[in-house]
Amino acid sequence: MDQKKKNLIIGAVTYGLAALISYFVFTKLLTGGVITSQNVTPVALPSTGSNEQVAFDSKLPKTQPCPINGVKYSKQQEDWWKQHRPLGVMIENSLDARPQSGISSADVVYEAVAEGGITRFMAVFYCQDAGIVGPVRSARTYFLDFISEYADYPLYAHVGGANTPGPADALGQIDGYGWTGYNDLNQFSIGFPTFWRDYERLGHTVATEHTMYSTTSKLWSIAKSRKLTNIDKDGNSWDTNFVAYQFKDDAASSSRPKSQTVSFNFSGGYTDYSVLWTYDPLTNTYLRTNGGQAHKDKDTGKQLAAKNVVVLFMTESNADDGYTNNEHMLYGTKGTGKADIFMDGQETVGTWSKKSRISRLIIHDKTGQEMKFDRGLIWFEVLGTLTPVVVK
Length: 392
Prior knowledge:
The chain contains six helices and 27 strands. The radius of gyration is 24 Å and the shape is globular.
């Protein structure tokens, strides 16, 4: 046999052995050392879509409940969310900000007036990846009280914030809590490429303040670079003192009413921010209308929907801190008050209680028992104590 043939044979054998070894090693890595198709745990991979959203295998059994809102996901997805901590993102709701990105992937949403009758959202993400979120806007003090329920160092993403000396000084409070430069994800100190401005995203010209975006993955990456994952700098897991809500299954379809609507205005006759929730018995969800228009997610095109809508009646006042037109708001987020809970097409008039900034907001029914929520998005609406709510 000539040398050329020998080289060809040796090359083929070497290639075959390399391929076999590579296959064996790759299979071992995927299966954790056991070569069996039943034991494969796929790694979550970013999708190839333009939304930069992490994708999961939708065919895997959904057995693991999200501790934030009770929805069941796959073990693969649970392994992913256990690597980080809850993330609150301030998302604006001015007319020029609609439609927003990412809200439909939140586990919980809090909505309250920011200033001038214009509402703002704090969307909390943990068990789902939203991809792009925004437009991101500034911090407000009462949202700090809500995000503080999610650990000593919850992730809080915003673009600056109220900083006039006084009771509404959100940036001063963030510093006082020891959050600055750690769990506080202020765009002023992070910048591009974690945050970026997109002047064309909404398809029309808007002012600069309506153009700031980020992604949940990039925000979690910043936290990881600060050694803040599910564990903080003291070695404590984020959920060490976290009080989870109680959850139940949806009401049987036969017991659901045909219709229910819930409507209100945050600020008198300022209808651009009026809200209508319309119950859909088929999906057992409430569909959101904002300012007379179906409120949709920019990236999915779907109307925002919640399994649970909880109206929190809280004392509402202006901060009197010298800010322009005295527009900085304050809400009485601690103590007790009336709550109106909507789920399964039914209304329950109850109460809310929150002992301190870091205490969990607990919802009770009229008998004083803690409410059990349907598994799904919980949307908290913060209204003044005298704001009328129309239920039909």
